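Risk register update: the risk of archive-format incompatibility is retired. Evidence:
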Amino acid sequence: MAPDLLRDHGEQEIIKMLADEFGIEDLDDAAAVDEHPELLSSGDMMFQSTDLPSNTSPLFWGHRFIAANVSDMSGMGCRPICMMVSLGLPGEMETGRFRRLLEGMTWACSEAEIRIIGGDTNSSPEVVLSGFIVGTPYREPLLRSGARPGDGVYVTGRPGMSALGLALIQSREDLYFDTPDLLEEDVNGSAEALGAFLAPEIKTEEAQYLSETGEVSSCIDVSDGISTDAGHISQMSGVGIVIDQGKLPISPLARGLCETLNLDPVDLALNGGDDFELLFTAPMNLEDQLLEDKIAVRIGEVERGHGTRIRRPDGNVETLKSGGYQHFSGEAD
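Archived output:
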């Protein structure tokens, strides 16, 4: 009889095992410290083999690592305060590349107004970056639970752009990406997509804005793709969510790049992941203000029921399957 392996379960089922074992009920982007509810903490890891393309500068590895951790705080409507970092480093790594990694971390910390206060280092066969971050709510924590039928579903930025940048990098393994505009002369618009992956925007200002409205009913950071992260809100809130394909904020630039690379821009927007944008629900009457202030666009609505669905341009509504990347299985859900 074949052994039962973790890769047979997938990331979400493994998370459920952990939650059941330790009695964790609220699977949000961060958790409150029991005796200090004004403090929230979270952790995030990156591995060179799966998260940090070898033909990109360690400067961007450091930036993405910090941005990913800060994104968990933003998804909770929290101001990041400080981080502990643990670094697994190969002994064969050139010192200059290590210093570039540290420069990237410093760059992102400056953008997020956060300090690294300590951590650990160890020898490792590959670069491993692990962070533990602490923050405090701007107002009240924004949870995945709380979405209400009749709310709109909104997203910041342009989901899918990071995955598009990664596709550009993977398509040119002969190049070393030490700047986002490396391909701009040959592939118009590539700098924006590459920048979205290499140095994602840190959404602390948007998180503060959303928190201070007092009207956001649920929120999550888009790390696994809209299809997966909308499903988390649906499950935790006990509601149905409908995403309107025609409202996804896909730019003409992104569509052109996708045509060049033979990619589906809708698939990237729904399933790309690693955008570190904010997906949230709030009353419909907030839509005009969010648009005017250039914070977010509405891409759907919350309804009674359960599960996530997508409304196609022809009006048909069908089940939206979770298509984001799953660790352990190494593939989409």
